[in-house]
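ok here's Secreted protein/lipoprotein:
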Amino acid sequence: MAFGHRGATLAGGALVMAALQSCAALEGSESSPSPTPSPTPSDTGSSVEEAGLEAYENMWDVVIEASHNGEADPSDLDRYASGDALALMRQTLQGAGDDGVTVVGEPALDPHVTEVSPASDPDTVVILDCVDDSRWVEQGQSSPTESEAPDEDRPRKVDATVSHDGLAWRVSQLRIWEQGTC
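and the structure:
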């Protein structure tokens, strides 16, 4: 599942996003990143932006697939996330797994790079996303209709910091806001 810049559909469920949001301020969690290298972009800003966006989208691909499979700790997640972002995603998937929740459908991502660290140090990219998770639902549930849950289908803001650690680009910080913030 590649999500590119075309606003592709992502699945995941309001339950998973709500859990992510409630855990978004997770602090103090540290995890060692996997030594799996990713391509190092050239010094051009667009290559740095593309590498950051690719790591962000790949992280979501892994999380979405894990939510479909009820997998609490997908082995590839640490290839694309580290630190607080990795801890947040693992905690959320674990919580859904503990509750026996399997998710179907996909959320729609619309990530944009808002900041790249200065050209002398291109190792951090800041991403702003507007995630529509209205079609990422718990198996057996239908997407909410406007009359059932008027705020449930409103996109939410996601702030992400993607860093290059010398080996790979990984999402290191992630903040998921409440619905209606985009």
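+1. The first strand starts at residue 10 and ends at 11.
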